[in-house]
Amino acid sequence: MSENKLPSWNETSTKKSITDFVDKITKEGSPDFIPEEDRIAVFDNDGTLWTEQPFQIQIIYCLDRIKELGEKDPELVKSQPLKAFYEQDWKTVSEMTKKDIYEFVVTVLDGKTPDDFKKLVVNWFDKAVHPQFKQSYYKCYYQPQIELLRYLEDNGFKNFIVSGGGIDFMKAVCTNIYGIPDHRIIGSSFKTKVEYNGNIPVLVRLPELNSFNDKDEKVNNIHLHIGKKPVFAFGNSDGDLAMIRYTLSKDNGIAFILHHDDDGREVAYDREFKLSPLIEGLEVAVKEGINIVSMKNDWKRVFEDFKN
Amino acid sequence: MSENKLPSWNETSTKKSITDFVDKITKEGSPDFIPEEDRIAVFDNDGTLWTEQPFQIQIIYCLDRIKELGEKDPELVKSQPLKAFYEQDWKTVSEMTKKDIYEFVVTVLDGKTPDDFKKLVVNWFDKAVHPQFKQSYYKCYYQPQIELLRYLEDNGFKNFIVSGGGIDFMKAVCTNIYGIPDHRIIGSSFKTKVEYNGNIPVLVRLPELNSFNDKDEKVNNIHLHIGKKPVFAFGNSDGDLAMIRYTLSKDNGIAFILHHDDDGREVAYDREFKLSPLIEGLEVAVKEGINIVSMKNDWKRVFEDFKN
């Protein structure tokens, strides 16, 4: 029964903690019952729902995009940080912070309108292949997490993505990948403005960050976009701790951190992934009641179609 | 049949334009078909879903709240603009802009946390009575619009509120009034920050506007929160024109402006309501294909339980 629910999850205590929680809070009349309108689940994306190795997928997109643009306009990529992107100098890129990359690279170059940008992203996804897993990025999601999203939905939850990734980047592809509608995807955003073509408003992206959705800002944006405290949170890095603690501050809240400890089927890493490390989360997990999910032990498989 | 759908709407060409639109875009295989995921409807709130006379309900809340605070702390209300609020000097208040009121009044005084603020708002709604209609503000919604929200939902639409009103103010009460979940309510917002009580994050409201959701900013926020162009828009003032035009720039988009022309059952006004006038909307409606809804002619009744 339990196996049918989450077939790619092993029968471990982690899986049991998920199903026990759902059983408990959906049981009408029980003191732990949570009404449907409050069943809000928040998921980080990079490293939680899809792979973030060797870089977050959006950064790999930027590397490819800047290579393309630099070939047309060598002036553009003469100095840092764009030079490192153009030369696919992964070492230099990996020493930048995620925020630097957003501010200095992503914001400068994307399509003029959100529709232009969406086309660029979709075109890239339609062709690009992951360097290690040799599969489309469309396939780089974690199959156990897709099952978890559906399982929560079947139990009356509304799932939201709350990610440091670009909100427009995610909306271009994530709705189809995860079955989560655009309006439930929250991410880092740029400012926009409206220009007029006669009476027709045209929304234009500006090269200025509106919100860098990491750490405490995830809590601010959960309040702005959702307006309720979640009862279920899933992340994989210290950037998710604020939203995890916010969730745990709610009666009956439960939270999970995915630990990438599986070098065979994916990549084993935590503190050494400078762009988005997991250090404090592992240290405080037991004390604060955060469930650590071991990719190696808790997941029967990692990707859907991949031999693993 | 058509009457059963929207019983509080008269059998006019306005009602027919709504039902024809819905019939057309839900007909599979037709060239006008719009898939469910794109059936996004946006509604202004003040003057569109509930009454905004003599002031927007949130402003009346502020008048009452500042009176209460000024009685405890006379220093607070010695100078403008708070003095006018304290003295319930409606003439002076009506000469302010909505944005002034947000910036100088609302942001200074509300509860420390969103939960504190929500309690203040709910407590006020539980007691306050509308000065003209002599009924609870909970009852000051327009019954024909509730039927329209349900009718659209029944036809696969997702309804969103996109209002100049405060997002937290609306979330405190509007979900119950309109049956629209918190995460589909978009409004003016304040900045927030996270403070820590040990490891527990506490979200705190800051006296600084994050977004004043009027005119073009409604389009920016539709993109940020929804990420899709709506196909159905309903407003009542020139502050809604940007989102109406944005909606009409979409294939098959349709838009409505409620004209308050009913002095018997509500209040007849347009250009003279300085806080939120309707001038340009009436001038351009025919040319731009915006449907003008006459409260007097198109609505069989205005409020649900009110003798009208």
Protein described:
Two copies of one chain form a homodimer. Chain A is built from 13 helices and seven strands. With 308 residues, chain A is of the alpha/beta class. Chain A has two domains: 210 residues, Rossmann fold (3-Layer(aba) Sandwich), CATH 3.40.50.1000; 71 residues, no CATH class. Chain A has a seven-stranded mixed sheet, sandwiched between helices. In chain A, helix 7 crosses helix 9 and helix 10 packs across helix 11. The interface between A and B is large, with 38 and 39 residues.
Helix/sheet category of chain A: alpha/beta
Helix tally of chain A? 13
What's the CATH superfamily of the largest domain in chain A, by name?
Answer: HAD superfamily/HAD-like
Low-confidence stretches of chain A: none
CATH architecture assignment name of the largest domain in chain A: 3-Layer(aba) Sandwich
Shape of chain A: globular
Global mean pLDDT of chain A: 93
Topology:
2 copies of one chain form a homodimer.
Chain A: H1 2-5, H2 13-25, E1 40-43, H3 57-72, H4 82-86, H5 90-95, H6 98-109, H7 114-127, H8 143-154, E2 158-166, H9 167-178, E3 185-197, E4 200-211, H10 216-225, E5 232-235, H11 241-248, E6 254-259, H12 280-288, E7 291-294, H13 295-298
Parallel strand pairs in A: 1-2, 1-5, 2-3, 5-6, 6-7
Antiparallel strand pairs in A: 3-4
